[in-house]
Specification:
Radius of gyration: 46 Å
Largest sheet: 5 strands, antiparallel
Helix content: 10-25%
Order of helices and strands: EEHEEEEEEEE
Mean pLDDT: 79
Distance between the termini: 132 Å
């Protein structure tokens, strides 16, 4: 083998005898005559075995796949957590809407029943899930009249009220549906009637189902 082509790396030892002091961590190429470093100043050499000089290794496809999978799993977990929070909020909102509307409707109808003088039978429908009732009242009557009429009925899932001489008004919100407005007429004698009302209110969006059923029995004022 040609010694001139032998480029084995070796560490140069410090030259304590004089001359140029060599770095003990400096690596030099041997010269063909075999002299240490050939008398060259090896202080500017490079140690290929030093960790500082190792070439940086690029990201492999396997690492990219692992990182992508981990990122996907974390994203799915966060998304599911956020979805659960939103669903819990919507369910709570549905329950509040149903409860508040149910109470408002029940109080409005029962108050009108308790103040009514009687029931106008021709435009009333009893013992039906979506009934209707017309009440005769002396409350808020125009001076030229002795009595007035108030009607309650369900149309397109909403409970409506109409006072004589006024336009119909929706009592229930658009966010809920009245599934049952059942009226049962109970006779108490002495020309005094009572009505048992069963009211069912459902949330309008089926995805967040919420239902409440309320029942009340109210005696009409009658002639008293």
């Amino acid at each position: 083998m040609n010694p001139a082509l032998n480029f084995d790396w070796f560490f140069c030892r410090p030259n304590k005898a004089g001359g140029k002091t060599l770095d003990s961590k400096t690596v030099c190429l041997p010269t063909p005559d075999g002299t240490d470093c050939g008398g060259r100043n090896c202080s500017g050499g490079v140690n290929p075995f030093s960790r500082k000089n190792e070439k940086k290794r690029g990201t492999t496809i396997l690492e990219i796949i692992v990182y992508t999978a981990l990122f996907g799993i974390i994203a799915i977990i966060i998304s599911n957590f956020l979805i659960q929070i939103v669903n819990a909020y919507n369910i709570s909102r549905a329950e509040r809407e149903v409860l508040s509307n149910g109470r408002l409707l029940l109080e409005t109808v029962t108050k009108s029943l308790s103040e009514a003088e009687g029931i106008y039978t021709p435009t009333s429908a009893f013992n039906k899930d979506l009934g209707q009732i017309s009440l005769v009242t002396k409350t808020n009557v125009k001076p030229e009249h002795e009595t007035a009429y108030i009607d309650f009925w369900v149309d397109n899932g909403r409970l409506w009220m109409k006072k004589e001489g006024a336009n119909p008004s929706a009592l229930s919100a658009a966010s809920v549906r009245v599934g049952k407005f059942r009226l049962e007429r109970l006779s108490q004698g002495l020309r005094r009637d009572a009505v048992r009302l069963t009211l069912q209110v459902n949330f309008a969006q089926p995805k967040f189902s919420s239902t409440i059923t309320l029942t009340a029995t109210t005696a009409l004022r009658g002639n008293y």
